[in-house]
């Protein structure tokens, strides 16, 4: 009999808002569909979604994409969100950031953000499929760090960068960018969008991930910074010494994801949609029957329901599923 279930509050504390689905890069692992649309949503729709999030009393708003800074009206969006009282953060590939952008971030009291760097220079440019993106990302990171913004460098594990995480951080260290206000986050490769092709072709094995954990631990020891796997992972598949390196996931409890057209999801990668806040108030969606059923974790193996570690069964987005409900790829069905 299952005893482990997720608990929640009336609305998410933190939301990542995908302001635009458009991006100026073509990362091989991206969970968006191939040929990512370049159609930006109208500004009035963005403002309306921000109004709805404010009404739901969302505290922290992550400005997300696509690429948020690729949106032609990103400045107006940031200023409007700041005036609505959100605690703001951002996730970016860094290619559109300059001194003026960072100055506006400071004006809007943005204290933390994340920039994607997927390996040393040659590997990063290969992954993003656009030459010169490493230099732009590193420059953006430097500007943000200099401004006192607490930054996280994000790396998605792929076949191209396996075994190169430590080298990635060492490259940043050689540029003087490993500082007190820097952390390092590693993400899992998920089988959606363009990422599905790579996931099927060059699947990252459990053995590979155990090597990733060892590398993350080495980074923390060598550079004295916080370094973690930013996604969920089944703790029963990982030696206890690595458990503290797994951030975990609180999707559909205290965290949610809003797409550019208002769809409410547990996270950006998962294909599960629980409603649309342009049609239904977010608090109502958050307490809906569909979300309550999701939190019962009925799709997990029986042993997860009574496991004392209760990690939520790892990542729901790590395995292909026809209905969006799936145990972690490393759990036995």
UniProtKB/TrEMBL annotation:
Domain Radical SAM core stretches: 9-226
Keyword terms of this UniProt record: 4Fe-4S, Iron, Iron-sulfur, Metal-binding, S-adenosyl-L-methionine
Gene3D superfamilies on file: Aldolase class I
Native source species: candidate division WWE3 bacterium CG23_combo_of_CG06-09_8_20_14_all_40_14
Pfam short name (any one): SPASM
Any one GO molecular function term: catalytic activity
Stored PROSITE patterns: RADICAL_SAM (PS51918)
Top-level taxon: Bacteria
Protein name according to UniProt: Radical SAM core domain-containing protein
Keyword Metal-binding: yes
Coiled coil: none
Cofactor(s) needed for function: [4Fe-4S] cluster
